[in-house]
Design brief:
The chain is mostly beta strands and 192 residues long. 5% of the residues lie in helices and 48% in strands. The chain has 1 helix and 21 strands. The strands form 7 sheets. A 4-stranded antiparallel β-sheet has the order 1-2-3-4, with no helix packed on it.
Length: 192
């Protein structure tokens, strides 16, 4: 779970370069440009035509042609992005997954862990909720009903915890572990 804290801290540096009314742009592989205006992110084409209005509070571009987006979050200097709902958008500005998860991790072997129902405690750490897993197309591979879900192995096994509790650092206490086979969904296979 230390990874979550690190990932929450990497993209907000963009906020340092933008003030209300100003724009900051980053080129991506689809020839669309992310822009930042009035503390929100949007997308424009090469002519400057707005393709996606600036509605996102946070973005994190991923290597597989997707961008994690968040609506409703706040940025805290010491911790990074807190709260809101996470979803996915593709390189063309199309919504792949409407923001609905309390957390959406980066993809590992084409799969990402998601949290539904978690809350941020007094130290702004995500706690509780249920964990599941989705594909790059947003398809649910493991429903968000487990106390904790680990990342997949290269062979497609995922350990899920039933009935335990976890802390921010990924330490799981109690419950029982079960293996799930998600091999047919690795690297996007079977995800559409």
């Amino acid at each position: 779970m230390v990874k979550i804290k690190f990932l929450l801290l990497i993209a907000p540096f963009f906020l340092l370069f933008a003030a209300p009314g100003n724009s900051f742009a980053q080129r991506d592989s689809s020839e669309l440009t992310w822009f930042f205006r009035d503390y929100k992110w949007g997308m424009a084409d090469q002519t400057g035509r707005e393709v996606v209005p600036p509605i996102y509070d946070y973005i994190s571009m991923l290597a597989n042609g997707l961008t994690r987006v968040n609506i409703g979050s706040i940025y805290k200097e010491e911790i990074g992005v807190v709260g809101g709902k996470w979803g996915l958008i593709d390189d063309y500005g199309r919504v792949v997954l409407t923001p609905k998860y309390e957390y959406l991790e980066v993809f590992v072997y084409g799969l990402a862990r998601v949290n539904k129902g978690g809350v941020y405690d007094e130290e702004d750490m995500l706690t509780g909720g249920k964990w599941g897993m989705i594909t790059t197309s947003g398809k649910v591979v493991i429903p968000a009903k487990y106390a904790y879900v680990e990342n997949p192995t290269p062979t497609g096994l995922v350990r899920v915890n039933i009935g335990g509790t976890y802390d921010y650092f990924g330490n799981v206490t109690g419950g029982r572990w079960k293996n799930k086979d998600v091999s047919r969904f690795l690297r996007g296979e079977g995800s559409r």
